[in-house]
C-alpha cells in the first residue's frame, strides 16, 4: 500500500522518456502504476529508465524509501485509468493524438480523477476539448529526467477548475516535486520560453561559426549555469547591482538590451549543413559514451548539486536543496517501521530484521568489494529503522529531541559486492532512560535455500538528546516503554561474541 494518503495508484498514458520518468518517480515513491503505451518495446525502455532512477535514488538521500509500487502494462487508455487516483498523459506532441487518448481515457475514469498532461507547448484549452469533465485537465509539464528534476509547471485551460490545479499541486508535491502554478495560459509556459531564447542564440553561434556545441555548453556549465541552479536570474542580477540593488543593475546594463547583440526573434535555417554541424559536434562531445552512461553521469551530477544545495543554510537547503530537504522529511515521516511493538504483537523473541537492500554499484571500491565505510552506513540505516520503530518520527524530531550516536564499532567478517542482497537484524544489549545500546548483524541474504552469511556486525551507543539545549535528557516514557518491550522479548538471547570488543581484542 502506498505511504501517500489518497495516492495509491496512478494511470500513465505514454511510456517514452517522459512517461518512463513519471513511472519511475511514482513507483519509487511507493505508488502503483498502470501504464499504456502501444510501443512493443515500452516494457524494456521503461524498465531501463526505472533502473537508472533506482540507481540515482540510492545516492540522493539517506531518508528511508518506501517499498516500490507495482508496474502493470495495459493494452488500452481506458484500462490505464480504471480505479486510479490520478492520471498523467505523456503522449507525443500531437494535438489530435492527445485529444483522442484523453477523450477515451476520461470517459472511462472516475469523474473526480484529475488528469495532468506533460505537454511542453500545447495549450490546455486546446487539449481538454472533447474530454469528459474537461475541468479536471491541467498541464503538468515536467523536465527530463522527471524522476530527478523537481520542477513541474501547472497551467490550466479555460475549463480547468481551481480545485484541479490544487489537486495536481498536491500530487506532485507528495512525490518530491516543486509545482510552479502559472497565472495565465501561454504558449511554451515559463521555463521552455526561457530555454527557447537560449537555444536560439546557441543555434546562431554554431551556425555562424562563433563557437562549437561544446564551447557553448562550457559557457553555461562553468558560468551562469552554476548560479542558475540555486538563484535563478533575477536574484543573481539583484546581487550584481551591489548595495544599490536591482535599480542600479538595470540603470547600468539595461541600455545594452537595445544593442544589436541578439538574434532572439530570428532562427537560422535548420538545413542539412547546420544539422550535420550540430550532430557532428555533439557526437564529438559524447566521445563514444553510450546513452545510458551519459544518463548515469547526468544523474550523478544532479545528485551532487542537489545534495550540495541541501547542505547549506544549516541543513535547511537552498534552491532545489530546499525541495530535497522537505522531501526527505516527508519520506522519513511516511517511512514504514520494521515491526509493531505492543502487548498483542506475536513477534519471535529474536533480533529484529530492521533493514534490507542491495549493495549499490557506487559502494564498491578498487578491490571490487564493498568499501569499509559502507558497512557503517548499512548498520546506521538499520539503526535508523529501529529508532523509527520506537517512535522517532518526524513529529518527534520537530519537537526538539533525537538520538545521537556516542560510540560505534564495526567488525568485518565477510566480503560483499555490488548487487548482493543484504539484510540487517538488531538486538538491544542495554538501555536506560537516556542511553540505548544496540547490536546489528549484517548478512548476505542466502539464495535458493542457502543459509545467510554473517558479513559484518555493528555496535552502537546512542544518547537521547534535547536538540534545543544540546544535552542528554530522558526519553519520553512511551519511547522507553517500546524499548523495554523489545528488550524483554530479547532477554533470552546470548550476548554476541563481537559485543564490547576493542580493536585487536580476542573474541570471547
Determine Rg (CA atoms, Å). Answer: 27 Å
**Helix percent band:** 25-40%
CATH architecture classification name of the largest domain:
3-Layer(aba) Sandwich
Shape by Cα distribution: globular
What percent strand?
A: 15-25%
Structural class: alpha/beta
Count up the domains. 3
CATH class designation of the largest domain: Alpha Beta
The CATH topology of the largest domain is given as Rossmann fold
For the biggest β-sheet, the strand order reads: 3-2-1-4-5-6-7-8
Count every beta strand, where a strand is a DSSP E run of 2 or more residues.
14
| String of helices and strands | EHEHEEHEHEEHEHHHHHHHEHHEEEEEH
- Alpha-carbon distance between the termini? 45 Å
Largest sheet composition: 8 strands, mixed
Query: What's the pLDDT, averaged over the residues?
Result: 91
CATH superfamily of the largest domain: NAD(P)-binding Rossmann-like Domain
Number of helices: 15
Structural description of this entry:
The protein has helices at residues 17-28, 42-60, 95-108, 124-127, 162-174, 191-207, 213-231, 234-240, 246-253, 272-286, 291-311, 320-334, 372-389, 394-398, 477-489, and strands at 9-13, 32-36, 71-74, 86-89, 114-117, 137-141, 151-156, 178-181, 352-358, 401-412, 421-431, 435-444, 453-466, 471-472. By secondary structure, it is of the alpha/beta class. The chain folds into three domains: 9-190, Rossmann fold; 192-311, N-(1-d-carboxylethyl)-l-norvaline Dehydrogenase, domain 2, CATH 1.10.1040; 337-489, Hotdog Thioesterase (Thiol Ester Dehydrase, Chain A, Roll). Strands 3-2-1-4-5-6-7-8 form an eight-stranded mixed β-sheet, sandwiched between helices. Strands 9, 10, 11, 12, 13 and 14 form a six-stranded antiparallel β-sheet that branches. 32% of the residues are buried.
